[in-house]
Amino acid sequence: MSDRSRDLESAVAAVRSAARACRAVQDQLVRPEALEKGDKSPVTVADFASQAIICAELERALPRDPIVGEEDADTLRHEAPLLKAVVERVAEQRDAASAERVLAWIDRGTAKADSARYWTLDPIDGTKGFLRREQYAIALALIENGRVEIGVLGCPNLPLDGGLGALFTAVRGQRTRMQRLWDAAAPARTVAVAALERADQARFCESVESGHSDQDESARIAEDLGIKSEPFRIDSQCKYAAVARNDASIYLRLPTRADYREKIWDHAAGSLVVECAGGRVTDADGAPLDFTRGATLDGNRGIVATCGTIHDQVIAAVRRARNA
Ligand code: AMP
Ligand code: MG
Fold first, then answer.
1. Which of 248, 254, 257 is nearest to 227 (CA)?
2. Of ligand 1's atoms, which has the minimum distance to the CA of residue 239?
3. 69 pairs with which residues across the strands?
4. If you take atom 10 of ligand 1, which residue's CA is the nearest one?
5. Alpha helices in 134-257 (DSSP H)
6. Strands 204-206 and 250-253
């Protein structure tokens, strides 16, 4: 097996297993399982279980690879009931899941983003969507020499073929593929972005959370571009999946605060999924996303992903809105 297929297979197995744990938690979601992190985003049992499962799988398959994940085990160490719930979920997916090992697996995901090769993980992207029982994603990407080489998005609630659950895989240089998430034997097919000549035909997507993207500004940009359709609001990197498979042709993420820096785990997998489906991804100024700056996209502000053909038009409209 070539290195790429081993990398991809390991990542897919890890994401599928984590997705099963997330679904199990979501099936019996109760309020006490959500607690507040310092930044006020809800953290769930599923966040921790997902990170533990993915780090355990990558440790087994690719033991030398560092993982830059969103979570760490500090809170869990002081929350015995929460830890117990997490261990139960992980044990459904993996043998030998003791409390100690689960904590160690989660903390395997706290590497610094300073190696030539590392994985970046959002164990549940769109935690708020997860808590609303709407869209969320398990996002895992391989970064080598500051470039995203593999992106895997598990989208447990995204419709596909009359059911729910879609898995997107992107390998640089190949077409993005989509398949059913829960059925490893189901065939994969390639997906492609919209073939649009004019931006006024576009449907755009954005965050449900107005704190994550400036929805007033996106409405002005849409009007400027002549877009009549309502924005498609979905949580998480499912927005990138939507652009990749032509459920939408623009994803706008416009800063709500000058000091916010996008996290690499919120964009690495999704951006490659769009690019390998034929689309383009830049920041709101039209600059390429720069994955060489550590755990944040320090050199970028905002995100614009499109089907490609209309990208320059969209960036021009973003600029006009900002200068207005
Ligand atoms: P979304 O589901 O697209 O709304 O994005 C969810 C992600 O938004 C989370 O994973 C957070 O990392 C990220 N986030 C948190 N605060 C902000 C903010 N002020 N601006 C942009 N993104 C944010
Ligand atoms: Mg996230």
1. 248
2. 3
3. 121
4. 125
5. 215-225, 238-244
6. parallel
